[in-house]
Each structure stands twice: as structure tokens, then as C-alpha cells.
């Protein structure tokens, strides 16, 4: 009787009683029946654990809000650190011969970032920095790697390149 009441309460509260739960309840009933060696004196306990749909949605909304708050805090920390450091120092370099000896990053969407300098090449001798921001008077900020490489290859020598 108690098991049937629990089933009715669960079905009424949550709308469905999963098939696996029903099968488990049937196994308990069978075990308590005459066919079981312990007979009808076996104690039955059924645990039902559920969370209502509204509660789950509220929890997910709270988790999203918390994640957004942490993301905003990290962004503020980055902005504060950038403000404390100040704008990056720009260095203008004149490169007089090719190949320049700069190896760019292959990461997409980051522009022309120098990740390696070849020893003895013009870029290493001139003190090249991390990012190309201007080639022969043409701004390259916001351009992708290929567009900046095209500017570098198309510039007549000697070429002035601004790095930050």
C-alpha cells in the first residue's frame, strides 16, 4: 500500500513515472511475494529522487549568471592590468633586404604576430617586436596574417615597419 501511494504521489507531482522506476518497483513487489524465500515479511523501501523542471531551470539560470559574472570580472581584471601597463610601446624598424627573417603565428584572427626571428636576418638585427601594426605607412591592425604578408611582400625596399 505504501509503495502504491508513493507511486501515485510521484506521478502526480512530476507527471511521469519512468519505466525503469516501474520495473524496479515490480521487482520489489515480486521479492516480497510468496515466491521469495523470505516470504511477505521482507521490508520494502523505495527511494525517489527528482527535481522539478522549474527548479532545474532556476538552477541553470543561476549558474549562467554566475559564469557571466566571473567572465565580466576577468575582463575587468584584464582591462585594469592593461590600463596599469599603459599602451604598448611602438617601435619603427627599417628593413633593407629580404628575407626579413620573421616567422608569424599561424593562429587565426590574430594578425601578424612574430613568434620567431631567424638569427642574422634583418628583423633580428633591427630589434623586431611582437605584432606588426603598420607596413610602409599602411596600417595593418585588424588585418589577418595573409593581408599583412601581402603588404610586407609588396612593399619596396627599404620598408619601414611598425611593431608593438
Multimeric organization:
single chain
Total of helices: 5
| Beta-strand share of residues | 5-15%
Task: Give me the strand/helix succession.
Answer: HHHEEEHEEHE
Mean pLDDT: 76
Sheet/helix structural class: alpha+beta
Helix content: 40-55%
Structure summary, number of beta strands: 6
Taking pLDDT < 50 over at least 5 consecutive residues as the criterion, the unreliable ranges are: 15-20, 31-35
In what order do the strands lie side by side in the largest sheet?
Answer: 1-6-4-5
Radius of gyration: 35 Å
Q: Identify the overall geometry.
A: elongated
Largest sheet: number of strands, sense, barrel closure? 4 strands, antiparallel
N- to C-terminal distance: 78 Å
Keywords:
single chain, 164 residues, alpha+beta, four-stranded antiparallel beta sheet, two-stranded antiparallel sheet, 5 helices, 46% helix, 14% strand, elongated
Question: What does this entry look like structurally?
Answer:
- With 164 residues, this protein is of the alpha+beta class.
- 46% of the residues lie in helices and 14% in strands.
- The protein is built from five helices and six strands.
- It has helices at residues 2-14, 19-32, 53-85, 122-126, 145-154, and strands at 91-95, 102-104, 114-117, 132-135, 138-139, 159-163.
- Strand 4 (132-135) and strand 5 form a beta hairpin.
- It is elongated and about 90 Å long.
Amino acid at each position: 500500500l505504501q509503495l502504491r501511494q508513493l507511486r501515485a504521489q510521484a506521478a502526480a507531482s512530476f507527471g511521469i513515472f519512468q519505466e525503469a522506476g516501474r520495473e524496479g518497483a515490480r521487482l520489489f513487489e515480486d521479492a516480497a511475494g510468496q515466491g521469495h524465500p523470505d516470504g511477505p515479511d521482507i521490508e520494502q523501501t523505495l527511494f525517489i529522487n527528482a527535481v522539478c523542471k522549474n527548479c532545474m531551470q532556476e538552477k541553470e539560470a543561476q549558474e549562467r549568471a554566475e559564469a557571466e559574472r566571473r567572465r565580466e570580472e576577468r575582463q575587468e581584471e584584464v582591462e585594469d592590468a592593461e590600463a596599469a601597463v599603459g599602451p604598448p610601446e611602438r617601435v619603427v624598424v627599417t628593413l633593407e633586404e629580404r628575407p626579413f627573417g620573421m616567422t608569424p603565428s599561424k593562429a587565426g584572427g590574430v594578425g601578424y604576430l612574430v613568434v620567431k626571428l631567424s638569427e642574422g636576418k634583418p628583423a633580428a638585427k633591427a630589434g623586431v617586436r611582437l605584432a606588426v601594426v603598420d607596413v610602409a605607412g599602411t596600417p595593418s591592425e585588424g588585418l589577418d596574417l595573409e593581408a599583412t604578408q601581402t603588404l610586407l611582400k609588396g612593399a619596396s625596399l627599404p620598408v619601414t615597419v611598425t611593431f608593438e
